[in-house]
Amino acid sequence: MTVLAKLRAATGPIHQQIENLSFTQRMVAGAISKDEYLDLLQHLYHVHVAFEQHLDQLPVDFVHGNIQRSHRVWSDLQFHGVDQLLPVHEEINSWLVEMDQLATVSSAAWVGALYVFEGSRMGSRMLVGPLCQALQLPPEMGNGLDYHVENMHDRGQTFRQFMAALDNYPAKEEVATVIVEAAVKTFQLLYQLHLAMTEATVAV
Questions:
Q1: CB 116 within 8 A of CB 189
Q2: CA-to-CA dists, residue 75 to 33, 81, 131, angstroms
Q3: Of 5-19, 35-49, 50-64, which gets the smallest average pLDDT?
Q4: C-beta separation of 180 from 17 below 8 A
Q5: Contacts of 144 (CB under 8 A, 6+ apart)
Q6: CA torsion sign, 87 to 91 to 97 to 99?
Q7: Does the pTM of the predicted model rise above 0.90?
Q8: Is 37:131 a contact under the CB 8 Å cutoff?
């Protein structure tokens, strides 16, 4: 079984769990508030910053010009007037500890995280319409949705390049296991962040 096949099999269930959360479903339906969206965006900013601090550990075949996305999140937050970020969520700190532990076995652990983020980049395109509806914004760069709108212009090219690199990556069994575990842990992080948004909504 290829690394890609293993990734798909291992991450499919947790990916589906994220999609089944009420917050995720409301976001896809364009039915979340601006405050909810900005809270999620701040968590994602912290995630991307943390990931980007480890880019030097990625195999060179996986590094590309669009890999950094935290600046897009930051520009969106500034557009919406967020001048003081939420503290880093404890789940992000826990994820970093787990990722660093996996990276001691193989730095290719960060390929597993990138698998999740590149998939998220693709899914992000589908959120442009619903978020434009929810936030009453035009689907153009510079209007507070750059994190998502940018990916519409990419048309999946970056994702295809990543998948090709992954398909050709000569990972030994131990390294493949690390990549898969890292991807699962990264999906679990996103699940916990979206779950926190769901629970915060219920508590209101």
A1: no
A2: 19, 10, 16
A3: 50-64
A4: no
A5: 76, 79, 80, 135, 137
A6: negative
A7: yes
A8: yes
